[in-house]
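Re: Re: ligand-bound prediction request (bumping)

Still looking for help on this. To restate: I need the protein modeled with zinc ion bound, output as structure tokens. Inputs repeated here so nobody has to scroll up.
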Amino acid sequence: MFLFGTFWQMKRRTDPLVGTAIAAVLVLLLTAATGFEYDQRRHGGPRKIYLTFDADITPEMRHRLQAGEVPAWYSPGLVAYLEKQQAPVTLFVTGLFAEAYPELVKELGSNSHFSIQNHTYDHLAFQSDCYGLPWTSNFRLKKYEIQKTQQMIYALTGTSPRNLRHPGLCYSLFDQFVAWELGLKIRDAGLVSGDAFQADPRVIVDRVISGAEPGAVVIMHLGGPNAPATESAVREIVPRLKQAGYRFDVLR
Ligand SMILES: [Zn+2]
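Reply:
Sorry for the wait, this slipped through. Here it is.
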């Protein structure tokens, strides 16, 4: 009341334009003080968190797998742990991963605790300077990378992904239009666990636990030689997040 009374007195004595400007500033201040946007993730609703795992295979990785240089490009122990926990998680799968492990993708796709989403066909970056990944700027090739993986995942799971994660999380405004045109939601933003090539699970656990907040999308990898500490880290992260009152959910 006091505020509006003062404002009214000022308005009567000053130029109408100045009065309007003061009113606008008051509204802005009040808005800032009360919080502009009601965010359900922070107020009331369940403390949901989204664990996501990228299942990368590049052509070079496929070659090494076929040559028998690596046992697998994922951690079977990690997958078994997640299945046992029945903690809903989202996997971003490359087409080459689906080709290498069709039975696994099929099996997890039929498990309601797993959501299988699109991580392009062969992990070619959509932008330059993306963690040293080979990259393309070719619009048709980008579309092909995404669409081929959509078809492969649909063929194995009976469900078309609705979410896309770009290799190396690198994309431009133009790539946003490509995803939009294909009806896919980009899921590159989130809490980056830093598990790629990280040998110490402590580093991953600390980063995830300290960065966790309601609604966070935690970005990890499905283990294997390029994410050697992820399995150990996840075995600690899952119970600790549960203890902190978080509920896991899949990205739909
Ligand atoms: Zn990736």
